[in-house]
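#struct-help
A.M.: can someone run this one for me? Single chain, 446 residues.
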Amino acid sequence: MSTGTSGLQATVDLALKEGIRAGCSDVSIIGSRSLTSQVRFSNNSITLVNSVRNITIDFYLAKNRRRILGSSSNPTERGVRSFVQRLVSACESLPESKDYAPLPSGPFHYQKRGNYDPKVADAPLVDYVNEAIESALRSGALRVSGSLNTESTQSIISTSAGANADDKVSMMLLNVRAFADDNASGHGLSCTSFISDFRAGEAGRRAGEYAKMSLHPVQLEQGKYDVIFLSTVVANILPVAGAASAFAIQTGMSYLADKLGQRVGVESLGVMDQAVPERGLGGRSFDDEGTPTQDNDVISRGTFSTILHNTTTAKKFSAKSTGNAGIIVPRPNTVVFEKGGVTFDEMIKDTRNGVLITNNWYTRYQNQRTGEYSTVPRDAAFKIKDGAIAEPLFGLRVSDSIPRQLSSIEAISTEREWIKWWEVDTPTFAPAMKISGVPITRAVGS
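D.P.: on it. C-alpha cells below:
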C-alpha cells in the first residue's frame, strides 16, 4: 500500500472496516508513518548514520466483552485483513474482561497545535554532531561519544465510536558524553521539536566542561546531604505523573495510592500532565481511545490533584477519562514541572554542605508502593562547600524514597529543560531541585 498520507489513511480505514466486519463492538486503529534517523559517535568520530521509514498500525479490538491489542509494521492490504482475522480469533479465546468499557463516542473536537517542524526530517545531523564534538573538545574533553536521534511522525486515529483525528510530531534528541580521562566524564543534552531551538554546541560544551571539572575525584563520606539534582536527574527520579496513573494505583504500584486530595509535597511543587505543550517536546491531541487529550494538574501546590484515566479505569473509579489512554495503562502525555523561584547559581550559593549530581543511571525500585529506590550518579558529581562547587566525587549511590523527597524539596530552579532519553521515556520539562537529607552511600566496589 502507499506510504503517503492518503495511503496511511486508507490502511487505517481498511483495518477499521475489517474489525467491524468481524463483529467487533469496539475498534480503535492508530496508524503512524515515521522517519527516524540516528547518528552515533565514539572517540570523536562518527560511527553510524542510519535512517528508517516505517508504518505501524496499532489495533484495539473488543468483542463480546473480550479485549485484545495488536501491532503490525508495514502491512499490505492482504496483511491487514489477515492480521485482523488472527487477532479476532485470538480475542474470542480470551475470558471476558471484568473491566470492559466501550470506547468513548465521537465526534470530538481536537486542538490543532502540534510540536512539529518539517525541517527536522532534512536536518544536517552530521554537521550538528561535529559541532557537539568540537565544542566538547574545546571545553576540555579528550574523548567524546553519544548519539543524535531524530523522529518525524504522522499519526492517524479512527475508531468505531466515531473518533477521527491526525497529528504530527518531530523530535531531535542529542546525548553527549565527554571524557577528560577514564574516570572523569560529563553529560550534555539537547532535546527539542524545532531546529531553531536545537543547541548541539551547548550540549557539547556542558559535557566537556563537566568532564574537565571531574578530574581527580575523591570519595565522599557516607551520610545525609543537601543534594542539588540537575534537570536530567529530576526527570528520572521523580516520575510523579506516571505514579498518578490509575493502573499503577489500582495495582498497588504507586506511592500516590489513597493520596488524592492530600498534601504529598512542598507547597511550591507543581506537576502537570500537558497534552501538547506549546513549543515543547512531544504531546498528542488524542489518546489511544480517541479521547481528546487535556492538561491535567497532577500535583498542585503540593497536593495530589488528578488521577490519570482511560475509559476503563474511569469506570472503575466512577470518574471521567482524562485523555490518557493507553488502552490498558493510562499514561502521561508530557510532564511539566512548575518553575521555582531561584536560579541554579543561587541554589549553589545557598548550600553550605551539599552535593551536586548532574546525571544518573541504574535507577531501581526496592518498593514501588512506598516509592523506595536507589540510583547511581553517572558522570560529573561534586561536593558543594560554602556556596561553591568544590572537589569532584566518585563511587556514590543515592538510596531514598520519592515521598520523602517530595516533602523535603528546599528549592526549585527557575530554569527548566526538556529531557528525553533512554532513562526518561516521557518528555519532561524539568527544573533543577535542591532536596535536603538525601542519604548517600558508596556504590558497590567503590
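A.M.: thanks! The radius of gyration is 23 Å.
D.P.: also worth noting: The first helix runs from residue 5 to 21.
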